[in-house]
Structure formats: C-alpha cells, structure tokens
Write a structure and sequence with these properties.
Layout: E1 2-5, H1 16-19, H2 23-26, H3 39-51, E2 55-60, E3 63-72, E4 91-99, H4 105-121, E5 126-132, E6 144-145, E7 150-151, H5 153-158, E8 162-167, E9 170-176, E10 180-182, H6 188-193, E11 199-201
Parallel strand pairs: 4-5
Antiparallel strand pairs: 1-2, 2-3, 3-4, 5-9, 6-7, 8-9, 10-11
Length: 202
C-alpha cells in the first residue's frame, strides 16, 4: 500500500460525489450562498497554494482504497459555524474521510497517520477534527460516520487526539503534532502485518 497527496494532478482518484462536494466550503444554507461557478475547485486551488495538498489517498497498486481531506482551518468556512467550533487558528482541520470499505479500520488508521506525518513535516502545530460525542458499539470499526459528517471519537482517541470542546452531540478533538516522533518501518512484511504508523504519539 502507498499514500499519495491529493492535489490538482491527482484529484481524479476521488469518487464523483467527492470531486463535486462543497459542503465544507459553503457552510451556509443554499438560499444564502453567493453564486460561484466552482466553489470546490476554487477551494482546492487555495488550499494547494498554501499547503501543497488538500488531503491524501491510500492505494493498493492501482486500486484506490480511500482518502481523507484536510486543510488549514481558516480555509474551511463551514467549520466556523459548527457546534464545538471554531477550530484553532494554528490547526489544520481533518474534514472528512471516504473508504469504499467503511469498516476497513486498519486502512483508516494508516492514512490518518500518513496525514499526521505530512503535516508535521510541514511544521503544522496541530490537527483538529469534529467527532460525535459518542458512537454506538456496532460502529467501532468505522473511523468516519459518513451519514453524520463526524468522526468516531474512540478511533480519534486511539490515535492520540484529545477532546477540547463539546457542545451537545458534537465534540472537537485536537492532536498536537509536536508530540509525534517518526518511526521507521522495519520491513515490507512487517508493514503488511502491522500497517504501522508514520508517526506515533509519545
């Protein structure tokens, strides 16, 4: 397996529903939105210009397994009106995740750790995410609760995130990237057995 940056050259790996989704960029009811020919593409250009990418995708050979979107918090307009928001100004926001197998938790964790390492390399202070306050036991293998547009809090906590604010059924989590240290992968076979982290909390 390998991870690749999401940018203008690789956006075609996304499913059509994701290539056109502008929920995070809009942040207001449709009747209150300003007219824009392509808010999604405008957003992608802005994030790539500032950060070099707007997420990462996980592939197995030529097969796309899933992806995650992330961006500087100030470029994610919807996040400022969400319960438990807004995210901190020094943070990137982990916006959403899409895996064709929603219960492929190993792949979700692998890609999350790849994003953490990429952001740490870019000297980003922290990664934040919105999560459900609680998740049902039967959802324990789903990192992202797609129908709610929220992450699974237990999965975030298992990957080093800590809650910083809660409002009703939504919590905002934060991971201080300075607490991560790089670890080398011992071998290809070890990587397959333990799809281990590019970085681990200390």
């Amino acid at each position: 397996m390998r991870a690749t940056d999401l940018n203008g050259a690789t956006r075609d790996v996304l499913a059509p529903v994701c290539r056109t989704c502008d929920w995070w960029q809009r942040g207001r009811p449709a009747e209150d939105r300003p007219a824009s020919p392509s808010p999604r593409l405008t957003w992608e250009y802005a994030v790539e210009a500032e950060a070099g990418f707007f997420g990462r995708a996980l592939l197995d050979g030529d097969k796309v397994l899933g992806w995650m979107h992330t961006a500087p918090a100030h470029l994610v307009s919807c996040s400022h009106s969400l319960p438990a928001g807004p995210p901190a100004a020094d943070a990137f926001l982990l916006m959403c995740s899409y895996f064709y197998d929603e219960q492929y938790l190993t792949g979700f964790q692998r890609l999350l750790q790849e994003i953490q390492a990429a952001l740490k390399h870019r000297r980003v202070a922290a990664l934040e995410a919105f999560a459900a306050t609680r998740s049902p036991a039967e959802e324990r293998f789903r990192g992202y609760l797609r129908e709610a547009n929220l992450f699974n809090p237990e999965v975030l906590e298992g990957n080093g995130f800590r809650p910083v604010r809660r409002v009703a059924d939504v919590s905002r989590y934060r991971l201080e990237l300075a607490t991560l240290v790089a670890t080398s992968r011992r071998s290809r076979s070890w990587e397959e057995l333990e799809p281990g982290a590019a970085a681990q909390p200390v």
